[in-house]
Amino acid sequence: MELLVEFINNNLMLALGCVGFFLLAVFNELKIKEANICGLSTTDSVKLINQNSLIFDVGPAERYAQKHLLGAANKKPEDVTEAELRKNNKKNKPVLLVCDNGNASKKLSLKLRSKGLDNVFYIKGGQTEWENASLPVSSLAD
Which SS3 state, helix, strand or coil, does residue 127 take? Predict the structure, then answer.
């Protein structure tokens, strides 16, 4: 034990770097775990939709006009806020976010969850994964 204390005293920067690296690794693992909790497969997303969830497409309006999930409302990510959801979701329905590839909806769902909204989810892989699973889409022309 004395050797360890002596090593740390002689190599303080190295020891602090190791501790910092360890803390970053732990933080990253916790962040990944949280992302996996709110990220749903297409199968689980269908189950959530069947529970009468609110669906927001946070992708570009142009793509939304061409094709989107049935029942989804197109919103800019900055318009889907904690205050907006608390105000307009009095029954605390699950909220499902979708975008092109899942990145924007993942980022937004993690942001909303960090503010205490635990019923917000996103589709892993986004609409691309939804279409690859041959699930139905709609368009504004329909």
Answer: helix
Total domain count, the chain: 2
CATH number at residue 44: 3.40.250.10
What is the rounded CA–CA span in Å between residue 127 and residue 137?
Answer: 9
Domain of residue 68: give its range. Answer: 39-137
Render pLDDT for 104-122 as a digit per residue (tens, 0 to 9): 999 999 999 989 898 999 9
* Average per-residue pLDDT for the chain: 90
pLDDT at position 35 is 56
Where do the H-state alpha helices sit in the chain?
2-10, 12-38, 42-49, 61-66, 82-88, 103-114, 126-132
Residue 101 CB neighbour total at 10 angstroms:
15
pTM greater than 0.85 (yes/no)? no
Distance, in Å, from the CA atom of 55 to the CA atom of 74, rounded to the nearest integer, reads 9
